């Protein structure tokens, strides 16, 4: 996957722009509030997903302007494509001259992964973020899995409601039995798919983390949950029934599982330094894209917003100069970081003006 050219007009604070990145690493640098993240956001919109900052379309249009126009030319596995987004009262999406129903029509045409600073919470926060990461990653490869995830959370909600009502209406026990049977099956599927995905992800994350740390640290990812050890979710539900009735909630299962991240044998969440936590989150993102490449043959473009701060020179050098065979876009503020780039392109952004540097 390669973005060849991006043209912008009326987008955020950016001046009318033609941006021509190279096929390797592209660094976008400048002071705070100049428009670096805005440029990444513009690239990202061609993935067919919503803004990674959660912005509404209207917020993307430059203040005081009626519409924004974004044009991209990109090469994917099959061909060179031209896509065009017009943001106004309504959004119009064109791909190779054909009008699409919406931005979702671009899904899978231009593939990208983005690392924004908020992604650090995958290491720093509680297990929910990590479960969501696993489920979303599986969905990228198997879109039908989204149905299982939705059904699972609906059934868990139903069951928790039932656990509360059963105290007043013992005839509801039969319903609980029926629900548990279905829940057991869906839960097992979820745990199985997460673990299948992890089997593919772990070697990729390992390799990248080793590179980032110059071979001085080792990362370990482990799926932690009670389901498998109990012989399936159905069996776990049975075992926990009494406890669940007392607690009036489903105390164990795929909705409580975690992806444990260890660096040098200790929890990255509890003990990792800032640089280690950032490196772990980056390794997960790069790993995700490597699995996509292996499974779909398509290397997504990688967008890294503000990842360099807190990383030492060695780790920065690895990202800038040792990531092969992928197009990467990196924003940063520090000119010293930019100086470390040996190949690739450099672009300065100043007050919304996009200035290529030679
Ligand atoms: N719709 C819009 N119209 C005009 N300007 C906007 C719009 N949306 C955002 N901006 C402005 O764009 C500016 C640059 O934002 P951006 O997030 O790209 O900065 P940045 O270069 O990434 O800075 P930092 O280094 O602090 O992350 C902000 O100051 C913001 O006010
Ligand atoms: Mg920014």
Explain the overall architecture:
The protein is of the alpha/beta class. The chain folds into two domains: 2-111 and 301-357, Rossmann fold, CATH 3.40.50; 122-269, RecF/RecN/SMC, N-terminal domain (Glutathione S-transferase Yfyf (Class Pi), Chain A, domain 2). The chain has helices spanning 36-45, 57-60, 121-124, 127-141, 145-165, 173-212, 233-247, 268-271, 274-296, 313-321, 335-339; strands at residues 2-9, 17-19, 25-29, 68-75, 80-87, 91-95, 98-100, 112-115, 219-224, 258-263, 266-267, 301-305, 328-332, 345-350, 353-357. The strands form three sheets. A six-stranded antiparallel sheet has the order 2-1-4-5-6-7. A six-stranded mixed sheet has the order 8-12-13-3-14-15, sandwiched between helices. It is globular and about 75 Å long. The two termini are 24 Å apart. The relative contact order is 0.17. Magnesium ion is lined by residues 36-37, 305-306, 331.
């Amino acid at each position: 996957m390669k973005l060849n050219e991006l043209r912008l007009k009326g987008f955020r604070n950016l001046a009318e722009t033609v941006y021509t990145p190279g096929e390797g690493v592209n660094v976008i640098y400048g002071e705070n509030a100049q428009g670096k993240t805005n440029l990444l956001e513009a690239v990202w919109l061609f993935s067919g997903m919503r803004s990674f900052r959660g912005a509404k379309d209207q917020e993307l249009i430059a203040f005081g302007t009626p519409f924004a126009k974004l044009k991209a030319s990109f090469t994917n596995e099959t061909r060179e494509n031209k896509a065009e987004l017009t943001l106004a009262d309504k959004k119009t999406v064109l791909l190779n001259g054909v009008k699409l129903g919406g931005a979702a029509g671009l899904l899978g045409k231009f593939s990208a992964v983005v690392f924004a600073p908020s992604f650090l919470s995958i290491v720093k926060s509680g297990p929910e973020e990590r479960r969501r990461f696993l489920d979303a990653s599986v969905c990228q490869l198997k879109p039908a899995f989204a149905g299982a995830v939705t059904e699972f959370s609906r059934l868990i909600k139903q069951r928790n409601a039932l656990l509360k009502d059963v105290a007043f209406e013992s005839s509801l026990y039969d319903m609980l039995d029926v629900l548990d049977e279905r829940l057991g099956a869906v839960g097992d599927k979820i745990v199985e798919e997460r673990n299948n995905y992890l089997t593919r992800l772990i070697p990729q994350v390992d390799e990248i983390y080793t590179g980032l740390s110059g071979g001085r640290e080792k990362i370990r990812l482990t799926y932690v949950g009670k389901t498998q050890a109990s012989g399936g979710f159905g069996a776990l539900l049975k075992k926990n029934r009494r406890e669940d009735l007392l607690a009036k909630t489903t105390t164990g299962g795929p909705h409580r599982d975690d992806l444990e991240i260890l660096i040098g044998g200790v929890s990255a969440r509890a003990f990792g330094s800032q640089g280690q936590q950032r490196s772990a989150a980056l390794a997960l993102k790069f790993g995700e894209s490597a699995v996509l490449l292996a499974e779909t043959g398509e290397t997504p473009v990688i967008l890294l917003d503000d990842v360099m701060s807190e990383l030492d020179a060695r780790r920065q050098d690895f990202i800038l100069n040792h990531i092969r065979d992928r197009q990467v876009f990196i924003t940063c503020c520090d000119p010293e970081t930019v100086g470390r780039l040996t190949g690739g392109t450099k672009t300065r952004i100043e007050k919304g003006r996009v200035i290529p540097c030679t």
